[in-house]
Structure formats: C-alpha cells, structure tokens
Specification:
There is one protein chain. The strands form three sheets. The chain has a four-stranded mixed sheet with strand order 6-3-8-7, with helices on both faces. The protein is of the alpha+beta class. The mean pLDDT is 95. It folds into two domains: 38 residues, no CATH class; 138 residues, Nucleoside Triphosphate Pyrophosphohydrolase, CATH 3.90.79.10. Helices cover 20% and strands 34% of the residues. This is Mutator protein MutT.
Length: 180
C-alpha cells in the first residue's frame, strides 16, 4: 500500500485527478500531459573501522526501523555529490571528520517513510576519519557502537541493502586478510 502507484492520485503540476499510473514506473496527466517518473534516490552508507578492526554501527533514532542498527549515512541532497553527502552526513550524525573515502558497492533498497515507498540506491563507501575523540551521537541517530565483523547480529540491521553492504565489506576484508 506504500508503493507510489497506490499513493499518488493527483497531478503535482495541475492538480488533476486524471493522473494514471502505467503499472511500472511512471504517471502521465491526461489534463496537462505532465509525465512523472518513479526514480531512485541516492543514499550513502559509510563503513568505518576503528584501530581494533571493529565496524562503527549507529542506532536509528526515528522511524523507519527505530532502534535498529545502521551504517552512518543518509540521503544525498539535491545538487550534492555522493562524496559531499558522505562528509556532511558523518559530520551531522557523529561529529567525525572524513579524511579518506573509497567507493565500495551499491545495492537497491525500498525506504518506506510516511507510508510512501522511496526507492533508493544505497552507495557503500569505506571511510577513514581523522580520529574518534569528538564522536557524538547526533541528528537522527540515538547511539553508536563498534562491533567486530564476526560478532555483528544481522537480524538487528535496519535494511537489506545495509546488511548486504556490511556483508560484502566483511567478505572483501576477509579475502584481503587471507591474501596478505
């Protein structure tokens, strides 16, 4: 019931109720011919390790999935690059300064907010920060913890895309450790 095809009923340009969904990914207004596509939104997720090799996980302060574990990150703002969003989100959520980032992998996600599905492409990055001396839970996180890769409780991870990013990172990390 949260799919845009079930939620959107009026043309956002002229207000007409003649705004049929094509059943796949777009609407076209019969009154003004406005064509609206359901596109994905970009979001970023940061995999950050401390000196002990533990991964930094955050706890979500709000719905969806309040209280569950997540990676630091969030939506890319309009006219913002993924790298800019990465620096901004990590500063907003944790007061950490990014010194280095490298793209890792992306996965699709369905983010349901206010009973509306927003399709996202979650871009995973491996991130290094200056230090952890000023780390503070802020913005839309209620806390944080460092967890050894082998001790992550994946049933507590907030979204399948975030779980897949973490599992991919851990698999790459294990593979790299074996080949060293």
């Amino acid at each position: 019931m949260t799919h845009p095809g079930k939620v959107l009923h009026y043309c956002p340009k002229c207000g007409s109720r003649e705004f049929p969904f094509d059943g796949h990914k777009s609407f076209r207004c019969r009154q003004c011919d406005f064509h609206f596509f359901i596109n994905t939104a970009a979001a970023i997720a940061a995999v950050i390790e401390n000196d002990r090799g533990e991964i930094l996980l955050t706890r979500r302060a709000f719905a969806p999935n309040q209280g569950m574990l997540d990676l630091p990150g969030g939506f890319v703002d309009p006219l913002e690059s993924a790298e800019e969003a990465l620096r901004r989100e990590i500063d907003e959520e944790l007061h950490l300064e990014v010194t280095q980032s490298q793209y890792l992998i992306s996965f699709p996600n369905e983010y349901v907010f206010s009973n509306f599905t927003v399709y996202t492409t979650d871009l995973g990055f491996v991130v290094r920060v200056k230090d952890f001396s000023h780390i503070t839970a802020c913005d839309d996180i209620s806390g944080y913890l460092f967890v050894a890769p082998g001790e992550i409780d994946y049933t507590q991870i907030c979204a399948p895309s975030i779980e897949r990013i973490i599992r991919y990172y851990c698999a790459c990390r294990s593979h790299d450790a074996i080949n060293q």
